[in-house]
Write a structure and sequence with these properties.
The chain has about 550 residues and is of the alpha/beta class. The chain has 18 helices and 27 strands.
Length: about 550
Amino acid sequence: MEHSFIAYIQNSIINNWDLDALTDYKGATLQYKDVARKIEKIHILFEESGIQKGDKIAICGKNSSHWGVAFLATITYGAVIVPILHEFKADNVHHIVNHSEAKLLFVGDVVWENLNESAMPLLEGIVLVNDFSVLLSRSEKLTNAREHLNELFGKKYPKNFRQEHINYHKDQPEEMAAINYTSGTTSYSKGVMLPYRSLWSNTTFAYEVLHLNPGDKIVSMLPMAHMYGLAFEFLYEFSVGCQIYFLTRTPSPKIIFQAFAEVKPNLVVAVPLIIEKIIKKNVLPKLESLAMKILLRVPIINDKIKATVRQEMINAFGGNFAAVVIGGAAFNQDVEQFLQMIEFPYTVGYGMTECGPIICYEDWKKFKPASCGKPVPRMEVKVLSPDPENVVGEIICRGDNVMLGYYKNEEATAQVIDKDGWLHTGDLALMDAEGNITIKGRSKNMLLSGSGQNIYPEEIEDRLNNLPYVAESIIVQQNEKLVGLVYPDFEDAFAHGLGNGDMERVMEENRITLNESLPSYSQIAKMKIYPEEFEKTPKKSIKRFLYQEAKG
């Protein structure tokens, strides 16, 4: 069968047997043959404890080599993987484990401390990701299998375990591979059922555009329980024969830079936040001087400085990559213009969990600024608008990448996939004659002004976030008026000699500045200061629904 996702995994293990595969940054490395051996042992564990093909197996923990092994072992067995974001609160994890009817849960040590096994009555066992020890067994067979695992493995492969022993599950295109519970900024998560054709098509797309080779290196910093990180920092790289470094701790900018400098990855896959932090912490301080600002305006010297600044940026990412691929959230316009000006090799893609994830992409050399690329192979994309070049409409798409639907929720499925198979994304965009998509906002976030004008809060927030001492912001509508909720950058403000008392004044000045650049119907009536960061989803987008009623 040609369109097999598992064939990608199986062939890579066989062909790259002696290459390095998975590395915990500052820790141990597994070669492809070690991954194969661990997969085999987990298969024996599944078999002995009565796990059937099609059974659900959940995994919740920080990125690590063993997380990757557990994921691969599950799908190559023919079971359905249910990856759960490790940042989810305990009751969310309990809910997902129960709702998905998972038989086993692979869990990271940090996550395990907060869970309550009695809240997950359907589980037959809980396995620690760190060393695959059994934390909880409700089945004699599982307990026995784990105690005698090495013995069972030795019996099955008495001589030694070799490439020719690798023979994994044969996947079918419409067969369910994974259930991914969307972070979603809505208050209740839905389980996205992804078939093997979606994993196959997303991986094949990566082969078509990313061009990595066996032995290339990548740093995995996005959560693997999220489709974006899973598809483009793990599944594709593993199927090529790359070495994947996992940042097993929470990736602070400091750890990320350190890892880039040491690993020197051949490709960088990131969310805007990481790029913005690098520019703010590593590059802008060097540009802040007045001399620099003047020089950047002088055309002749300009190019030389631009080249220097570009080199600084490239070095920050290890200096060895072909391009930086950005996705997952909207990109700040000022940051993007800056990258454009210094001719930095970046591109922005667009996708969603429901497409596992990719919908639009374009190579950085042909990428249109401020857009998020063109429809990818095997996907049709339309903008529902009488004049898509000038009038905003909803993005709809269909094709190999699209999910089967939401698990045990036909009503929610029917709301997003129409009878012709088009997935309605809820995102609003323009589409030019070449097919470039430029996103204008989420339709569910769109506000309507008193005079019936569409207001896209993201566009206003984007500007507000670039004003002095604004760390993050949300624009909400109250009694027909717009209010700016702001979490200030206190650290920066204090460093510049401002005190708590100055914040109101500074934000009022920001409000006036902001309004000068906004049309009359989207003027900000007042600002409200928040003392702490806004709550975020795992993709680092603000949970807007929590702040709609903000009084003040």
